[in-house]
Design goal:
GO terms for molecular function: ATP binding; methionine-tRNA ligase activity. It is a multi-pass membrane protein. This is Methionine--tRNA ligase, mitochondrial. By secondary structure, this protein is α/β, with parallel strands linked by helices. Among the domains are: about 40 residues, no CATH class; about 150 residues, no CATH class; about 170 residues, Isoleucyl-tRNA Synthetase, Domain 1 (Orthogonal Bundle). It is about 50% helix and about 15% strand. The protein has 28 helices and 20 strands. The strands form 6 sheets. It has a 6-stranded parallel sheet, with helices on both faces. A 4-stranded antiparallel sheet has the order 5-4-8-10. A 3-stranded antiparallel sheet has the order 11-13-12. The longest helix has 28 residues.
Length: about 775
């Protein structure tokens, strides 16, 4: 039998006995060892067999199993003393997993005893983090060998401070501010201890803070929401537009690998309109909402809307949160019961004050309508519960004055602020009689009332965060923690601005929860000058549209024309024009440089080898059209500058939801590249090279010029395709794949000229087809 060398022992293992050496085989006993336990130098007892001292000439059995109590003790002491400067290098020469396994099992057991039964998630995150950090430090380690088991060993030992905190958690409640502070200290303790180990392993000096950074890095998720869409009718292009604004922004954030995001969309499924629609169709409300909600999921799937959660207000956790939030408001005294009379709109499911009502003539009759929504209202009197909006009016006014970016665009901000300052807010009716509204969430402890649909619906944004998880209770105030995505950036249509910019922040203020980060209010899409409606017959069905024009061209059109300040104009003629531009400018540039006369791979390789170092001088000397030298030099310089700056400039626009100008910047580099290629005319040099009358030196110079022009345009295609991924995720990645750009090099880290010099293989193969082709107008 072969005893393999221990991770801890420096003694060489004895060679095994060959099978064919049976002539004078040593039976395995030394002369000084008797055949019975207790004789010779053998120490009797089970503990000796599994101890750390071992027998003469043999390493201890536990050491052979990878367990060295001396090293476990040494590493534990290092963790407990994170300020130790000189960590013994010999204890890092092994990949001991005994200690980490012990601590991990102990951690899980203590969490179980503390009532935290769902700790498998923590183990999963730990495994993912260990693998990620291992490869990060492996890339940093140059020639130092660091294997996965050693990384796991380091991180496992440094779990000890969290184990100690979990011990406290068994006997004391840590779900409070003190607990969160202690946990934060434990995490920092773990981090700094681990950094010391890795500094020792990687043989680096004076870089402990740098090593510690990726161990503790934690960026708060960027949380974006769409409105939850009402399911009384099929989805239309307006719903898609809200989804697309959010999805594009989330994808833009994800271009930066260091950023984290959380994207919520879903459906609003309670209320009188749902109840009435279900009655007309002869189905149960739940059956109706299940069907229509699925249509919104299908819309999202069709257009590659990648949400993190699709929430439904019929979800169990949301119903529970809505009732708990109601109870919280009741306990605080912000909800009371009373009688209400006013102008009620069934379509909008809200009461309007007299100042928001006007009389118009409709079908030969005079009717009252909401000035804001133009929907009909009727006068009703009923017993409801009311929320004390008026108690928070001045608080909200002060908040808006201190945070002018809370509502975007600015004219919407001014509208809300002026409304708040011009009249006293009436208290809001937040329930409806169960005799009239049967399809809704029950008011706790009062079966005669249902929770008002907007009170219920707005809380979905909080439900999705897992509230109260991710929040620390500091007295009566909820403090948002780093692991919570809250506060959110809400994307909404202008018709629901009052609910999101007055009611919602007041509800949160009443609960002592931080208001949303921002509310972005977009306008509507007009078809032939009118708001889309079924009665006018001008509703645009997005899925049918995409089946003819393609998903990405529709996404691009909506983004290119996304003007949140004013209503946007839709027509198929405009969509056709937008699509034709993609084919004629973006895709055509790829076709031009990807033709058989050029070689993108060779061009990139020459750039990598520094062969374009003196290219400006060569252009001046060897340009076939001397009159174009100045223009070519100017255009190539401007193109390189634009490519180096376009990510930063587009980032500013996308961050401010100024999509229309972001796309204009993107078109700018495409147009510059096309113009440079057209003026440089590289095909003329290809023809000249084929001329047998020019010498080899001239041919080499001409080929270098050709490859330089192709390289610049290839860089324009590569960088522009990376940056347009949030808008056209499929088409852009088809182009990047055609260019042979590696998947890991499609992020914002590679959006400067020369940032990637390893692409282009087979890009000029004749087997490639255009990524997008023209379609006829219909």
């Amino acid at each position: 039998m072969q005893f393999y060398q221990s991770n801890y022992s420096y003694q060489q293992a004895q060679p095994s006995i060959p099978v064919n050496s049976m002539g004078s085989m040593d039976m395995g006993f030394n002369n000084d060892v008797s055949g019975t336990m207790g004789g010779g130098e053998l120490t009797p007892g089970l503990l000796a067999a599994f101890g750390t001292s071992g027998y003469p000439g043999e390493p201890p059995l536990l050491e052979e199993l990878g367990i060295n109590f001396s090293h476990i003790k040494s590493k534990t002491l290092v963790v407990l003393n994170p300020l130790m400067k000189d960590i013994p290098s010999d204890i890092m020469a092994d990949s001991d997993l005994a200690g980490p396994i012990l601590f991990v099992l102990l951690f899980g057991t203590l969490l179980l005893l503390a009532g935290k039964v769902q700790f498998g998630y923590i183990y999963g995150v730990g495994l993912f983090g260990t693998v990620s950090l291992h490869y990060l430090f492996k890339f940093m380690s140059n020639d130092t060998q660091i294997d996965l088991s050693r990384s796991a060993s380091v991180i496992g030992y440094c779990l000890l401070p969290l184990v100690l905190i979990s011990v406290v958690g068994v006997v004391a409640n840590l779900d409070n501010l003190v607990g969160y502070v202690l946990s934060a200290v434990a995490v920092l303790w773990c981090t700094y201890s681990a950094s010391g180990f890795f500094v020792s392993v990687l043989k680096l000096h004076n870089v402990r803070p740098l090593i510690a950074y990726p161990l503790c890095i934690s960026s708060k998720p960027f949380y974006v929401t769409t409105p939850i869409f009402y399911v009384n009718a099929a989805p239309h292009i307006g719903h898609l537009y809200s989804m697309m604004i959010a999805d594009t922004r989330i994808r833009w954030e994800k271009l930066d690998p260091a950023k984290r995001t959380y994207f919520l969309t879903g459906t609003d499924e309670h209320g009188l309109k749902i109840q009435n629609t279900a009655e007309k169709l002869g189905v149960e409300p739940k059956e109706l909402v299940d069907k229509v909600s699925n249509n919104f999921k299908l819309l999202a799937s069709k257009f590659n809307i990648k949400y993190d959660r699709f929430i439904r207000t019929t979800d169990t956790d949301h119903v529970e949160l809505a009732q708990n939030f109601w109870n919280m408001m009741m306990e605080k005294g912000y909800i009371y019961k009373g009688t209400h009379s006013g102008w009620y709109c069934v379509s909008d499911e809200t009461f309007y004050p007299e100042s928001s009502i006007e009389e118009i003539e409709k079908n030969g009759k005079k009717v009252k309508v909401s000035i804001e929504s133009r929907n009909e209202v009727v006068y009703e009197t009923e017993t409801n519960y009311f929320f004390k909006l008026s108690s928070f009016q001045q608080h909200l006014i002060d908040y808006l004055k201190q945070n002018p970016q809370f509502i975007k665009p600015n004219h919407r901000y001014k509208f809300i602020l002026n409304e708040l300052m011009s009249a006293k807010l009436p208290d809001l009716s937040v329930s409806r009689p169960s005799l009239r509204l049967k399809w809704g969430i029950d008011v706790p402890n009062d079966q005669s009332q249902k929770i008002y649909v907007w009170f219920d619906a707005l809380l979905n944004y909080l439900t999705a965060t897992g509230f109260p998880r991710g929040f620390a209770k500091d007295g009566s105030r909820y403090v948002t923690l780093e692991n919570s995505p809250w506060p959110a950036t809400h994307i909404i249509g202008k018709d629901i601005i009052r609910f999101h910019c007055i009611y919602w922040p007041i509800f949160l203020m009443a609960a002592n929860i931080e208001p949303p980060k921002q509310v972005v209010v977009h306008s509507h899409w007009l078809c032939e000058g009118f708001k889309m409606s079924k009665s006018l017959g001008n509703v645009v069905e997005p899925i049918e549209l995409s089946e003819y024009y393609g998903v990405d061209p529709v996404r691009f059109f909506l983004t290119e024309n996304s003007n949140i300040d004013d209503d946007c104009k839709f027509s198929e003629a405009l969509l056709q024009r937008s699509r034709d531009a993609l084919v004629g400018k973006y895709c055509n540039l790829l076709s031009r440089i990807g033709g058989k006369s050029f070689d993108i791979a060779q061009s990139v390789r020459q750039a990598k080898n520094g062969e374009f170092k003196n290219i400006e001088d060569l252009i001046s000397r060897a340009c076939l059209k001397k009159g174009n030298v100045g223009t070519i030099l100017k255009l190539s310089t401007e193109l390189k500058e634009s490519l180096d700056n376009v990510y930063r400039e587009m980032d500013e626009k996308f961050t401010n939801f100024d999509y229309i100008r972001a796309i204009q910047l993107w078109w700018g580099v495409i147009n510059q590249a096309n113009q440079m290629f057209q003026v440089a005319e590289p095909w003329l040099y290809v023809t000249a090279i084929k001329d047998s009358q020019i010498n080899e030196e001239t041919a080499t110079q001409y080929q270098l010029l050709v490859n330089y022009f192709v390289y610049l345009c290839a860089e324009a295609m590569r960088i522009s395709s990376i940056l347009i991924q949030p808008v056209m995720p499929v088409l852009s990645n088809q182009v990047l794949t055609r260019l042979d750009v590696a998947l890991e090099k499609r992020s914002s880290d590679f959006t400067k000229v020369g940032a990637d010099l390893d692409y282009g293989k087979d890009s000029n193969s004749s087997s490639h087809k255009p990524p997008l082709q023209k379609v006829k107008s219909r």
